[in-house]
Write a structure and sequence with these properties.
Helix content is about 35%, strand content about 25%. It has 10 helices and 10 strands. Strands 6-7-8-3-9-10 form a 6-stranded mixed sheet, with helices on both faces. Strands 2-1-4-5 form a 4-stranded antiparallel sheet, covered by helices on one side. Helix 4 packs antiparallel against helix 5. The radius of gyration is 18 Å and the shape is globular. The protein starts with a strand and ends with a helix. About 40% of the residues are buried.
Amino acid sequence: MSNHRLSIQGVTVSYDHVPAIQNLDLELRCGCCMGLLGPNGAGKSTLLKAIAGLVAIQSGSISYHGHARSHIAQSIAYLPQRGVIDWDFPITVRGMVAMGRFSSLGGWRSFGKADAAIVNESLEVTQLQALAGRQINALSGGQQQRAFLARAYAQQAHVCLLDEPFSGLDTNSQDDLRDILRAMVAQGKLLLVSHHDLKTVPDLFDGVVMLNRELIASGETSSTFTSENVARTYSRAGQTALTS
């Protein structure tokens, strides 16, 4: 799967005729964890939603492994920011993870043993077996993020889009989440993760996509996450954040 590509060609998304992202060209391969970096209002969430098919693109195209976005819905999983989710919805961890199987059932197949096995595997990979029967509103922030990752894993998506998953997590929870993301990358998945804490970027991501409405830079973290590129993306304030 590492030779599969997510291709974004000439994509522009506008709100009220104002471009949120403009003429974006980007190609990302599976088998890596990419940090999506940029200041507030840079278009990070818009890009993730455009790839997920949640906002319309004004121009350009998005494809995965040669297939148009409209034909690859099951291959892409989107994890929104934790603050926009209704955590009071009455569902257990297992129930939420099982929702990841629904897109593959269609209108003709019922939930079966193979689906239950995938749900169990998803809970194991994300270290949530002991919490499977717990209501989602009783979870910690880190556990909630892992539950959403487990749902994406159960969906068997090849591309996972995560909007600020590390935000608000303590150090231990961040470490647990990082390890799970690494395990998913080892299986050949592509993870595109919006992130704001520049100091943790080298520890978390194989590569970075640096965005400020337009693409500033993309590539391996070691060669792309430089003071110069951070300054171009964030202005002088961003350079200070990197070097402090």
